[in-house]
Amino acid sequence: MSTKEQVLMALLANPGDWLSGDQLAQQTKRSRESIWKAINALRKQGHQIESRKNRGYCYVGSRRLDANAIQIYSDQQFAGPIEVVAQTPSTQILAKTFLSHHQPRLAAFLADEQTAGYGRRGREFYSPAQTGLYFSLILPNPTNALANVGLLTTGVAVSVVNVLQRFYPNKDFALKWVNDIYLNQHKVGGIITEASLELESTSAAAFIVGVGLNLTTTDFPQALQARAQSVDPTMPVDRNQLAAALLSSLVALSKRYATADFLPIYRAKSLVLGQQITLQVGDAVVAGVAEAIDEHGGLVVRMTTGERRTFTSGEVVKVGLPA
């Protein structure tokens, strides 16, 4: 481990506390000059580190995403590579490129900005620099089966909301089936789950989970202003800390999502249950009342004809008044 990484680990272990140069030198077994150089290198990477004579150094946060900080915040428990880039068309593309050259394995890809971020049906996800968190997570699929994908998607949504609730305890997050995160009737985040299929088979070697969150964004394009917002432009959070919490939560979910133990929370957070909805399924548009989320994460809809149908894919494009 480099001196820079050791110093960062020591600072993050003592947030808000002052550590003298001597303390850092003793902890890392490096010289005071090496500590000074490491501090300056960390500052150039966007880490905000205050210094005071006779007190030393105090870590106060970071303006940039940093793979080392994310790994440290996750207690070194993320058993795969973490890649952070300043800009990319889409973190989903980074993940797919990685899979095209490697056997399926746990890996995370984060970007400060996406120029072509996308969600379901290829719809653009606005991803400006520094005000959001955008990442993709490769989850190997040891069984290769495509069963219970609906549970994975709904489970990811609950996991993300649970973590957001910890960072924003006063916010009342909601979910629009199947994977949009809402606040005050406005979208603040989206999730996409794509399968990496084995050639000449219908099995999935891995799932690529993409998460996009607008945290402090205020300058939405005019076309989005009526339906999108940020979580809280007045309350910035440490994005490295948030990323670490989300990655840890999603890895834990990947080992148990088949239990469906999160479905009661998903149903309680649902924006669509009991509502008249319009659902886009491929090229077809159907309407009815969303009556239930079944045990596989499917949406049960009572059609205008009275027939009850269960949908495992599609997008709710309109939510009306209670039936």
Automatic annotation (TrEMBL):
Domain named BPL/LPL catalytic: residues: 77-258
**Which EC class is the enzyme in?**
ligase
Q: Name one GO cellular component term.
A: cytoplasm
Return the EC number: 6.3.4.15
* InterPro entries, alphabetized: aa-tRNA-synth_II/BPL/LPL, Bifunct_BirA, Biotin_CoA_COase_ligase, BPL_C, BPL_LPL_catalytic, HTH_11, Transcriptional_repressor_C, WH-like_DNA-bd_sf
Q: Which reaction does it catalyse?
A: biotin + L-lysyl-[protein] + ATP = N(6)-biotinyl-L-lysyl-[protein] + AMP + diphosphate + H(+)
- Tell me, what is an example of a GO biological process annotation in this record? regulation of DNA-templated transcription
Task: Tell me the DNA-binding residue spans.
Answer: 21-40
Q: Which Pfam families match?
A: BPL_C (PF02237), BPL_LplA_LipB (PF03099), HTH_11 (PF08279)
Q: Does the record carry Ligase as a key word?
A: yes
Residues engaged in binding biotin = 114, 187
Q: Name one GO molecular function term.
A: DNA binding
**Key words, A-Z:** ATP-binding, Biotin, DNA-binding, Ligase, Nucleotide-binding, Repressor, Transcription, Transcription regulation
Q: Does the keyword Nucleotide-binding apply?
A: yes
**Record-stated family:** Belongs to the biotin--protein ligase family.
Q: What does this protein do?
A: Acts both as a biotin--[acetyl-CoA-carboxylase] ligase and a repressor.
The protein in question is named Bifunctional ligase/repressor BirA
